[in-house]
Design a protein that fits this description.
By secondary structure, the protein is an alpha+beta fold. Helix content is 28%, strand content 24%. The longest helix has 20 residues.
């Protein structure tokens, strides 16, 4: 799913990670369609892996709860993730216990990657402080947090009615859009 610097994946994730939450508003229609499609796939409940070049392990302290706003590509295969660690001296390997990841293996150009996706807004808890291997590998153990609120964003997206003609929007539809935007923009503050 990665692609080049201007790929949909990279541009969308850059926007989702932006501190300015209003930059995401133009993407709501796409995100609704994407989330609806993902919701049709069965949930993956196992340990998945994500590798990134460089040491970012210092950002993750035991017990911390965090939200990954981007669409995160992971794999059920540790061997596959090894290629994403880069050739640099330092790399960070995430071991993530997931409960709601989505297996897209049958829908990707790279079926050998055994790819699963974490949805935007996935909440995670740092299980342990990072393991620092002498060779420069830093392992971070995360677990998906399922506290009953994980369905709020998908449910808000599912109830969102979008119309291409603004004059066709009913008061109810405008209210749903307002509630969705409010939920999305304030979700980070509510979860703290």
């Amino acid at each position: 799913m990665e692609g080049g610097d201007n790929s949909l994946y990279r541009v969308l994730n850059k926007t989702l990670r932006s501190e300015n939450r209003r930059e995401v508003v133009p993407w709501f229609g796409f995100l609704k369609l994407f989330d609806t499609a993902l919701s049709k796939l069965p949930a993956v409940q196992e340990c998945v892996w994500r590798g990134v070049a460089g040491d970012i392990s210092q950002q993750f302290k035991e017990g911390d709860k965090l939200t990954w706003w981007s669409i995160s590509s992971c794999s059920v295969s540790l061997k596959v993730v090894q290629d994403f660690l880069g050739s640099e001296e330092n790399a960070t390997l995430f071991m993530i216990e997931v409960k709601n990841a989505k297996n897209i293996n049958g829908y990707t150009n790279y079926p050998d990657e055994q790819e699963v996706l974490l949805r935007p807004g996935t909440q995670l808890r740092v299980k342990d402080n990072a393991l620092h291997h002498k060779g420069g590998l830093h392992v971070v153990h995360l677990a998906e947090v399922c506290d009953g609120h994980e369905a709020q964003l998908p449910n808000a997206m599912a109830s969102l009615n979008l119309s291409s003609k603004s004059e066709n929007k009913s008061a109810s539809s405008k209210y749903k859009i307002h509630c969705f935007i409010h939920t999305f923009l304030l979700h980070e503050y509510i979860s703290k």
